[in-house]
Write a structure and sequence with these properties.
EC number: 1.1.1.38
Number of strands: 14
Protein name: Malate dehydrogenase (Oxaloacetate-decarboxylating)
Keywords: Oxidoreductase
Distance between the termini: 31 Å
Number of domains: 3
CATH topology of the largest domain: Rossmann fold
CATH class of the largest domain: Alpha Beta
GO molecular function: malic enzyme activity; NAD binding; oxidoreductase activity, acting on the CH-OH group of donors, NAD or NADP as acceptor
Structural class: alpha/beta
Length: 488
């Protein structure tokens, strides 16, 4: 059975099966699953008697339809009785993934009197007299709001606030696990820019930072810009800046592997929406040789009409040779491909036309722009956004440490110096002596990552330094326009 999508733990199922108690029964089960294109990850004997064995077989599948095919293949075997199928992802989400716990025990009247009335009144009065004390005496010191309107949930589109909640819960769990930051989902039942800005401004006093998440372009750009102007706490759109930080970190080490310099390479970016635009801005700050931006309108080039202001700026400030063809043509001879767009846009043959020792970051999830197995036949370094492939470029490498550093520094804004410092910190955690084609970023579970990023961000917050000169210089790079387009 040909399975074009890769099996993933995100589609893991556990199947309870009764089989006849003979020597070959278990082997027939695992063979059938393998022939169906799934990957067996566990097999546990639940019960047995002289005539039968009951087992729980756990396997990774490619999608819901593939899971059904695996079950059908097992059901068709002689002597096999499929009793129950459990989707392990849905089981993990039952009842939600986060909860509130108290930091104080409240074991007796004395503790209650200090944590709540009458003692709490003294703390309220202290904050009223000096509002800055809220960072010291309340949850504001370590709490972030994860804000979404559900308009761009993962790669799934406009699903609305309720359907975005599992993602925001997951984000909050990652904040706590990797950065020690208390985060809470704030999903809004509006997609009106003015209303979102007003709501976030109104709830901001309780938080030390705002993490915008899964808000569609172009509104996400305007929302972030207006909130940054209005609030005295950092506002960070992770789809933009978290992605850009991680890509720059990974590219720094990938270039070390192949022995190329950023200022000498030509980069093609597929997807000129929130993530792609932020990536290109950060690469331009670092002095990249050239970039071709590719989106629904094709390669952004001078002379292309009907562009919004952000795309117009990209057309005027990238693509030195003014290329105007298709995506396979754009990557011909290119050193680096970065995809933050849509699945299956390229083939292995396309990658073969890139420059020697090419680098491919195919980050569309769950299906990359090019099959990584095919890309690795031709590219020197390949990375994806998938956890089951080498070189996973995952925003969790960045945002927990970035917010940890900003909260510790009592920062009032997120800056580009912080982004560059965070990217350097992530790259350096691997160490030049340990990088290789399959290790260009640290594991998301490497305990050194978040502390290193936090320390770098704190240093950048306390000692901001001018960005290195690049062409174009910082003064020539505009803010992302409010009418920029979404990634396809």
């Amino acid at each position: 059975m040909a399975i074009t999508r890769l099996p993933s733990a995100g589609f893991s199922i556990t199947i309870r099966i009764a089989v006849t108690a003979d020597a070959s029964s278990i082997g027939r089960l695992t063979t059938s699953v393998g022939e169906a294109g799934a990957i067996v990850t566990a097999l546990d004997v639940v019960d047995s008697d002289p005539n039968s064995v009951i087992v729980d077989l756990t396997c990774d599948t490619a999608d819901a339809g593939h899971a059904d095919q695996v079950v059908d293949a097992l059901t068709a075997l002689d002597g096999v009785d499929v009793r129950k199928v459990s989707d392990r992802t849905f089981l993990l989400h039952l009842g939600g993934k986060i909860e509130v716990t108290s930091k104080v025990a409240l074991r007796n009247r004395d503790e209650l009197s200090r944590a709540y009335t009458p003692g709490v009144a003294r703390v309220c009065m202290a904050i009223a007299e000096n509002p800055a004390d809220a960072r010291r005496l309340t949850i504001k010191r370590n709490t972030v709001a994860v804000v979404s309107d559900g308009s761009a949930v993962l790669g799934l589109g406009n699903l609305g606030p309720a359907a975005s909640l599992p993602v925001m819960e997951g984000k909050a769990a990652l904040f706590k696990r990797f950065g020690g930051v208390d985060a809470w989902p704030v999903v809004l039942d509006t997609q009106d820019t003015d209303e979102i800005v007003q709501i976030v401004k109104a709830i901001a006093p309780a938080y030390g930072g705002i993490n915008l998440e899964d808000i569609a372009a172009p509104r996400c750009f305007e929302i972030e810009a207006r909130l940054r102007e209005a609030l005295d706490i950092p506002v960070f759109h992770d789809d933009q800046h978290g992605t850009a930080i991680c890509v720059l970190a990974a590219l720094t080490n990938a270039l070390r592997v192949v022995g190329k310099r950023l200022e000498d390479v030509r980069v093609v970016v597929s997807g000129a929406g929130a993530a792609g635009t932020a990536i290109m801005k950060l690469l331009l700050r670092q002095g990249v040789g050239d970039i071709i931006a590719y989106d629904r309108e094709g390669a952004l080039h001078r002379g292309l009409t009907g562009l919004n202001s952000a795309w117009q700026w990209l057309a005027e400030n990238t693509n030195k040779e003014n290329y105007s063809g298709d995506l396979p043509g754009a990557i011909r001879g290119a050193d680096v491909f970065i995809g933050v767009s849509a699945p299956n846009l390229l083939t292995g043959d396309d990658i073969a036309q890139m420059a020697k020792d090419s680098i491919v970051f195919a980050l569309a999830n769950p299906d990359p722009e090019v099959d990584p197995r095919e890309a690795r036949k031709h590219a020197a370094v390949v990375a994806t956004g998938r956890s089951d492939q080498p070189n996973q470029i995952n925003n969790v490498l960045a945002f927990p440490g970035v917010f940890r550093g900003m909260l510790d520094a009592h920062a009032e804004e997120f800056t580009e110096e912080m982004a560059l410092a965070a990217a350097r910190a992530i790259a350096d955690v691997v160490g030049e002596e340990k990088i290789n084609p399959t290790v260009i970023v640290p594991s998301v579970f490497d305990p050194r990552v978040a502390p290193a990023v936090a320390a770098a961000v704190r240093a950048a917050a306390h000692n901001p330094s001018p960005l290195p000169a690049a062409d174009p210089g910082p003064a020539d790079l505009p803010e992302i326009a409010a009418n920029a387009s979404a990634t396809p």
